[in-house]
Amino acid sequence: MDDRDALIALWETMRFPLGELERRLTEFQVVVSENGEILGAIGIRLAGKHGQIHSEAYTDFALADILRETLWKRIQSVAGNHGLVRVWTLETAPFWPRCEFVPATAAELEKLPEAWRDSGANWLTLKLREDIEEVVNLDQEFAMFMEAEKQRSRQMMDQAKMLKWLATLLALGLFLAVIGIGIWMFMKNPSILGR
User: Fold this and answer.
1) What's the mean per-residue pLDDT of the chain?
2) What's CA 143's distance to the chain center, in Å?
3) Which of the two residues, 156 and 73, has the higher pLDDT score?
4) How far apart are CA 98 and CA 176, in angstroms?
5) Three-state SS for 11?
6) Distance of alpha carbon 130 from the chain centroid
7) Which of 1, 76, 99, 179 is 20 to 30 A removed from 160 (C-alpha atoms)?
């Protein structure tokens, strides 16, 4: 809050929407000079496990990359403290791709928080870590798949046992039929044994 007036002045020079940013003042990280002047500021808006870097502003753009280094370290700290899994930005400075931000793929854009989807199409993103919930969901899906496969294997084994039992019963029936026919033939014609 101490930096409010200086931030507003900086945002005015950048022609940012003052009313919107003033309501979100606590999102901003600032770099100040030794005499307390704001040299640069950048916002990080949070939505669940995602963070959006936005509204970077500098009093002297010759110092922008140096100041971005400091601000990026602070953003990483905020991201770690809040357990973020991905950071997004529409900022276009070459600094961000050097920090491993890449253009978002269609699959990644599906993970973009709903509130930010109207902001533009040229998102850069950086995956900070695996989303444990996604990993757990994949593990659960794999476990369900394995259980279904085990159940299918059990059914096949049960069918194989049934077929084996049926084949044994059929063989026994055939054996008894052959013995019965032999006995019947012997009874009808006892001379078969070669008298």
Assistant:
1) 87
2) 17
3) 73
4) 84
5) helix
6) 7
7) 179
